[in-house]
Amino acid sequence: MLESFAARDDLNEVIKNRVSKACDLLDAGVPLFPNDFHKDHAVSWVLEKFGGLEGDDLEKQEDVFAIAGRIVSLRSFGKVAFFHLMDQSGRIQCYASREHLDEETYKIVKKLDVGDIVGVSGHLFRTKTGELTIACRSLKLITRSMRPLPEKYHGLKDMETRYRQRYVDLIVTPRAREIFAKRSLIVREFRRFMEEHGFMEVETPIMQPLAGGATAKPFKTHHNALDLDLFLRIAPELYLKRLLVGGFEKVFELNRSFRNEGIDTRHNPEFTMCEFYWAYATFEDLMNFTEKLFAHLAMAACGTTVVTYQGQEIDLTPGHWKRLSFHDSLTEIGGHSPDFYNDYSKVRNYIRERGEKAADSESLQKLQAKLFDLDVEGKLIQPHFIYHYPTEISPLSRRNDLRPEITDRFELFITGRELSNAFSELNDPVDQRLRFEEQVREREAGDDEAHSMDEDYLRALEYGMPPAAGQGVGIDRLVMLLTDSASIREVILFPLLRPEF
């Protein structure tokens, strides 16, 4: 089989040479992919337990360490070889000598390449340069690597190759491993924070008969047995609020959602967010809760509430966050007077002059939202809660009791991008039906992101949903912030890319 693999026209000479050496190993009776090595220790355990020992204290240790990992560097000098072995927890140098290994084992050493996975056992010592090293008393090839890793000092430089071949990126790019280890920690701490504050984790459908809970283009699929068109969820919101109707008062879901929209440094069609709902709370309660949540996550991931993102210090300390109404932000940050942003023709023409679309059928409130996107959002570097959005662009939010043209809703912006959306929930079934009907009219007029009519959700509201506040937090963007990552593709293990083949 290996001979036929080596004969492939698309293989370069380096790979063919590796295959040739693999054939030599097989001829010598050495299996290339055995599954009988027992790993007793992680590299980190060895480093932590013995890394502080020197000289005689180190030599007195009689332990024989059985570790396994990938060879990431290799230097051979005739009868001795040095290589660095890396597992998930760290890397350590190994020393293989003809003097300490039997002849058959040392022949294996001479056939090893960077990228091979091996298991070793032996004793510890320090080299003349002071590096802690395992002197191999036994060595076993566990997995033969047929392809070479990128060069040590060049690595994977092409960003698309890094994302497409994440398996290689994780081997050769320490920062990539750090990002995803930190992402795991952030998600774990997010879940712990929610549970410690009385929220129950739940799961809701990914395939839904209606794409609801947000205004976005969905992905469509079909269930053959039921002959039913379904949509991948764009948000879990309406199902989570059904649970409030059912009597659960504090629920959250760490979920995957899908939106059939563009791809850029902030957007991936498949993304992770957390949505949570809190009965008898308001959007103002969620502002305070969010400050505490983000500060907790920053401390857990970065050890401080003042984090650095792309050269800027971002202060996530509770009490330091700014709060500004939507319309006030158009003036104080966007530089537009109320006379301007309330003049339909002026706003529409201005947006068109800036190169953005502004259809004559769009309402003033929608144009104001585009004005915000153009002249406000990118300037919100420090944490800003922008609240009291117009009702027309907030179809699921509760109207403000004193000003029904605005809603009790906020969006959180940090580093010039939205990280969260939240509001006091609309629980009046009559008002919700009227909002849905307006959304249906907009859909019929050509807005394919408008919300659909959801009769079952309206029926749920008619049974009575307690007053509540709900929020969604973009996990990917949050991880970007706490890992100082400029692109969302840096924090998603396998971002969507065009097919390579």
Automatic annotation (TrEMBL):
Q: What is the first-listed, main subcellular location in coarse terms?
A: cytoplasm
What this protein needs as a cofactor is: Mg(2+)
Keyword annotations for this protein, in alphabetical order, are: Aminoacyl-tRNA synthetase, ATP-binding, Cytoplasm, Ligase, Magnesium, Metal-binding, Nucleotide-binding, Protein biosynthesis
Catalytic activity entry: tRNA(Lys) + L-lysine + ATP = L-lysyl-tRNA(Lys) + AMP + diphosphate
Q: Transmembrane stretches, by residue range?
A: none
CDD domains attached here?
LysRS_core (cd00775), LysRS_N (cd04322)
Query: What Enzyme Commission number(s) appear in the record?
Result: 6.1.1.6
Where is the protein localized? Cytoplasm
**For this protein, what is any one GO molecular function term?**
lysine-tRNA ligase activity
Q: Which GO terms describe its biological process?
A: lysyl-tRNA aminoacylation
Q: Which Pfam families match?
A: tRNA-synt_2, tRNA_anti-codon
Cofactor details (free text): Binds 3 Mg(2+) ions per subunit.
Please, which domain of life does this record's source organism belong to? Bacteria
- Record-listed Mg(2+) 2 binding positions: E418
Quote the PROSITE patterns the UniProt record gives.
Answer: AA_TRNA_LIGASE_II
User: Which residues take part in binding Mg(2+) 1?
Assistant: E411, E418
Sorted alphabetically, the Gene Ontology cellular component annotations on this record are: cytosol
Q: Which family does it belong to?
A: Belongs to the class-II aminoacyl-tRNA synthetase family.
Query: What is this protein identified as?
Result: Lysine--tRNA ligase
**Taxonomic source organism:** Desulfovibrio fairfieldensis
What gene name is given for the protein in this entry?
A: lysS
